[in-house]
Amino acid sequence: MKARTNAEWLIALKSDGQAQAAALSDLRAYLLRAALYALYRSRSTLRDFAPTDIEQLAEDCAQDALSAILGHLDQFRGDSRFTTWVYKFAVNAALVAARRERWGRVSLDRLLDTPDLVERIGSFSDTSSDPQRRAFRGEILAAIRQGIESRLTKRQREALTAIVFEEVPLDELARHWGSNRNALYKLLHDARQKLKAHLSERGFDAKEMLDVFSNDR
Amino acid sequence: MERPALRRLLRAISDTDDEEISCAKCFDLVSEYVDLEVAGMVGEQTLPQLQQHLRQCGVCREEYEILRDLARLEAEGRAPSADDLRSAL
Predict the structure, then answer these.
(1) What is the ipTM of this complex?
(2) Which of A61, A180, B2, B58 is deepest in the core (most CB within 10 A)?
(3) Could you give the domains of chain A?
(4) Distance (Å, rounded) from C-alpha B84 to C-alpha B16?
(5) CB contact, 8 Å: B78 with chain A?
């Protein structure tokens, strides 16, 4: 693969003939390397895949990334190396694919049918030997439960349960709900803001709460 | 209920800002941030909204970490070839 400056990449990719063909060939090679690297790093989620299947998945992701890059070439501002800029498209495509393979086998409907956020927080078992700390934690948990019940929508409760408690990837939950990553992030942001405001109005400092649940004694 | 899950919830609430960037904006900025980081030029004030998003969003964070590691390997001349990676799979 030929090393190029940012300007050389752009000129070659926007030209025609041999210069463009050579740049496209090199770009494909860079993208394939990035996709293979991302899938290699995610290999624990692809245990059921034969190496040849992962290679094929990497080829597909590199092709998807190439199409996206050629469609966004005018948006490259030059504030990073061109190769770093193109790598992010391949890494994104590869990790979205890997997460889809991992979570496509899980019934998210069944997972979302598990106990609600309020019940889960209510089941927290405090083993601290310090009665004052136990009492303070109990007050915090009661306030969080109240905030969830009074301020969050059903969808926000489900999203927090899935993302924070079950560690379902955001893009997979968005796909399951026919939504998208940005919209789901906004939904979660709104939920966090409501809970933060609810707790703040009751005199709980967010960092103090985190601290009281961080160390057991 | 498991304590790590509760801590994740509290950390997420604690680290909530009024204005947060979207995953799309994070994707837009992450290559610039990665190159600054690889060059050792990142501090707390470098693209703080991106840093906050990366703390909140697990999928963006996962993509950032792999991009950063690959960019670092490349900057050090140690990026694996496609053949190396195929053999390692």
Answers:
(1) 0.96
(2) A61
(3) 6-103 (1.10.1740), 111-212 (1.10.10.10)
(4) 42
(5) no
Amino acid at A130: D
What single letter denotes the amino acid at residue B27?
Answer: F
Do A111 and A173 form a contact (C-beta atoms < 8 A)?
Answer: no
**What is the pLDDT tens value at each position of chain A, 217 positions in all?**
888 999 999 999 999 999 999 999 999 999 999 999 999 999 998 988 999 999 999 999 999 999 999 999 999 999 999 999 999 999 999 999 999 999 988 888 888 877 778 888 887 777 777 888 889 989 999 999 999 999 999 999 999 999 998 999 999 999 999 999 999 999 999 999 999 999 999 999 888 888 888 766 5
Please report, for residues A4, A109, A187, the alpha-carbon distance to residue A183 in angstroms, rounded to integers and kept in the order given.
37, 20, 6
Instruction: Give the integer Cα–Cα distance in Å for A89 and B73.
Output: 18
Mind telling me how many Å the CA of B54 is from chain A's nearest CA?
Answer: 12
Q: Is A209 within 8 Å of B14 (Cβ atoms)?
A: yes
Contact A125, B1 (CB under 8 A): yes
CB-CB under 8 Å, B6 with A121? yes
Report residue B23 as tokens: 């995953």
CA distance A100 to A106: 10
Tokens of A83: 């190769």
The domain segmentation of chain B, as residue ranges, is: 19-77
Instruction: Tell me the backbone φ, ψ of residue A76, rounded to 5 degrees.
Output: -70, 115
CA distance A139 to A113: 27
Shortest Cα distance from A171 to chain B (angstroms)? 7
